[in-house]
From TrEMBL:
Taxonomic source organism: Shouchella rhizosphaerae
Protein name according to UniProt: TetR/AcrR family transcriptional regulator
Family matches, as InterPro entries: Homeodomain-like_sf, HTH_TetR, Tet_transcr_reg_TetR-rel_C_sf
Domain HTH tetR-type: 6-66
DNA-binding region range list: 29-48
Alphabetical keyword list: DNA-binding
Length: 194
């Protein structure tokens, strides 16, 4: 009998990530991951207690990948970076976005908290947002994310006019972000809260 193949936790997560990118997180099964690795299911169960634990590891990878994409943008604006990364992710991985955004799930419980903190910290580097406290920055982020999510879903579902390219989408995001920040500054000057 030939020796059983051994796979690292990272190799298993990478195999599950490959499935998720093409078919979505809900499509990950222990059997599919084993097939991707050319293995039996045993090595997967050595590293993960069940498929849900493996899916959570993939969601963590998605979060890390998303943060990396944001930091690679360098648009000069936190909202520009966030928006450009989100749109790029939606174009490249529509099945994954559908699973994470359009379906009720528990995948993003920790993601939203961790990513929210990361995004607010990124926002603090923008001179345009100086003077806003943590709570105000989180409200600005929530408003921008609401718009961003809608635009992302339009990208995933191919509901934008064909001539509306990535550059046009980024310009729209910049425009809306600017308007949200201006409105927040006006409210802050007037002393009202969100």
């Amino acid at each position: 009998m030939p020796p059983k193949k051994k796979f690292s936790t990272e190799q298993i997560i990478e195999a599950a990530w490959s499935i998720a990118k093409e078919e979505g997180i809900d499509s990950i099964t222990i059997r599919k991951v084993a097939n991707q690795l050319g293995s039996s299911i045993a090595p997967i169960y050595v590293n993960f207690s069940d498929v849900e634990e493996l899916k959570q590891a993939v969601v963590k990878k998605v979060s890390q990948f998303g943060q990396q994409m944001i930091h690679e943008q360098n648009t000069g604006s936190p909202f520009g970076d966030i928006g450009a990364a989100s749109l790029q992710f939606a174009q490249e991985y529509p099945a994954l976005v559908r699973d994470l955004v359009m379906k009720p799930n528990d995948y993003l419980q920790n993601y939203d908290q961790d990513m929210g903190t990361e995004l607010v910290n990124h926002m603090k580097t923008d001179p345009e947002l100086a003077g806003f406290d943590e709570k105000e920055l989180r409200m600005i982020l929530l408003k921008m994310r609401a718009f961003q999510t809608g635009l992302t879903m339009m990208v995933v579902n191919r509901q934008l006019p064909p001539e509306f390219d990535l550059k046009s989408m980024r310009e729209l995001l910049d425009s809306v972000a600017g308007e949200i920040v201006i409105a927040a500054k006006i409210r802050k000057q007037e002393g009202s809260s969100d």
